[in-house]
Amino acid sequence: MMSQSEKCWQTRDRFLELHSRWMTLIGEHLQDPQGEILEYWRVEKADSVIVLPMLDDDLVTSGTHRILLPSPSYRPGVGRVTLDFPGGRVPEGQSPDQAAISALKREIGIDAVSITQLIPLTTQGWAVNSSFSNQKLFGFVAQIHNTAKLHPAMMAVTYPATLEGVQYLLRKLTCLQCRAVLLEWWLISG
After folding, report:
1. Which of 7, 53, 83, 157 has the fewest CB atoms nearer than 10 Å to its CB?
2. How many beta carbons lie within 10 A of that of residue 97, not counting itself?
């Protein structure tokens, strides 16, 4: 249900809509509750997924897990190589679950048969939204069977899924979305 203040905002016109494979750029004039006409620009992108891969260690002896990270990759937006969890956009016609499985295959070489559980951290997606950008983020935890064949060339590092491991990893991650997925998992696994 819309609040009274939300009802007072009106879109007067859309003066630009530019589509590409990756995004849509929109320019609009909005009228605020005081009657002032404001120019707003925003980008709409496909929703995205971030996957926290957890390798089951020998559950008989230790009962612990390790967090897997792919090799760092160059991020044009920040102009440097960063350490991130597997992830990407949700292509049109694909579910977030399918996109998560594709990201694991593409970024760390894990086949779907090696995934023992794919656990969504949210079913509705989190709004990654500002006045300029609009999308949803779907976070997942993927339990990877301990017999999965890991590809050393695709793997950067593993961290223990312990308080110390999570704290160390948080110091290494600069991606806010990756940090949010890690912290959400840590809070609910508590």
Report:
1. 7
2. 14
Domain boundaries of the chain, sorted by first residue:
4-44, 46-189
> What CATH architecture applies to the domain 46-189?
Alpha-Beta Complex (3.90)
What is the reported pTM?
0.83
How many Å is the Cα radius of gyration of the chain? 20
- The CA-based dihedral angle spanning residues 179, 142, 187, 85, taken in that order and rounded to the nearest 10 degrees: -10
Instruction: Please name which of 178, 151, 158, 173 lies closest in space to residue 55, comparing C-alpha atoms.
Output: 158
What pLDDT digit, counting tens, does each position of 65-120 carry?
899 999 998 888 889 999 999 999 999 899 999 999 999 999 999 999 999 999 99
- φ/ψ region of 79 (left if φ > 0, alpha if ψ in -120 to 50, else beta) reads left
Nearest to 70 by CA among 106, 100, 117: 106
**Inter-axis angle of helices 163-172 and 176-189, nearest 10:** 170
In angstroms, how far is CA 104 from the centroid of its own chain?
A: 13
Query: Which one-letter amino acid corresponds to residue 114?
Result: S
